[in-house]
What does this fold into?
Amino acid sequence: MSPLKFTIQKKLDQTLGRVGLIETPHGAIETPAFVTVGTKATVKGLTPEMLQGTGAQVMLANTYHLYLQPGEEIVKKAGGLHSYSNWHGPMMTDSGGFQVFSLGVALGKNITKFTSSKAQEKLLSEPVVRDPDAPVLKPAQIDANGVMFRSVLDGSVHYFTPEKSIDIQHNLGADIIFAFDECTSPNEPYAYQAQSLDRTHRWAKQSLAYHISKPNSEKQALFGIVQGGRHEDLRRESAQALKDMEVNGKTFDGFGIGGSFAKEDMGDAVRWVNEILPEDKPRHLLGIGEAEDLFEAVGNGCDLFDCVMPTRNGRTGTLLTKYGKLNISNLKYTDDFTKVEDTCACYTCTNYTRSYLAHLFRSKEMLGGTLASIHNLYFTINLVKNMRQAMLEGTFYEFKKNFLAV
Ligand SMILES: [Zn+2]
It folds into this structure.
């Protein structure tokens, strides 16, 4: 029995878009939905109550960061992520794969001829180089079984396998977890993408087999991740492989779509995949959050999306509005006593002016980043909610056209 129940409530005509409901052990998610990112089990600067006030339904925490700090054993001791972070709604954790490849400072990315233990010896015998300004040329060393990487915190050496990633995610205890995958750079040649895809599929099967052998599979759902870069044949192959993947009659509870896309072909890439993935399981497009990308993803059948953009922008004083981005540090806002956005109903716009926000940022007050993050999250979450409503009312394309025309 899957710990998730997914119901489709309405489908778009002609395209793959759908309105649904995902029921998890910690509550339901009305989809499509924007997932807020709480990397270190906190959405930076916001209490769970503030987060709830933005309309957030679900939070995604990061396996790599929590493994390094405070360590997943500590989170388990605290009773899991929900009680540790005091966010009691649905939670997800990623597999750590993306961060291992993008942040882990280690050796060459080529498939090593060393076994993991020999490679580890080699790595340990080398001096730890940790210069935060140095370009990360070779983020991690992969072998057939896993990935070795250095911690961004102290340069210590770590080794992730699919089983290790699942173990960590079991200890963290989120409602939805992800299979361990290799996230390739879009600049890698085709041959490398194909080779990497085979490894990702093998790791997906290992993740599934290991997950279902543990009692946690009764309460945590596992999503497999589709990769394949910008190549249509690889994307389709990946979707088919994950759809068909089965261990002892058990399959994935849902799917993530990972990796990089070119902005202009993201909609197509998502469509290639979603035409193949089973309709009755939820699909999470990893790492997107710009308005036009969200419209493409929703129209092409994705149910969940996450991105650090709204909060990262918020912390630097960049505010999202339907007219575009607004930099609150601009001098013209010093005596602008209007709201950030005239029709926004968020806590920030209900209570504060642009002038006050500009003052907070200029004087480096903590509240500035909090209020800006609240507005940006509300803006993004509410945009996806409005897409959902428009789909229910049969006006999705009209809504999209009007929104993007401004
Ligand atoms: Zn607002």
Remarks:
- The first strand starts at residue 5 and ends at 11.
- Residues 72 and 168 are 6 Å apart (CA to CA).
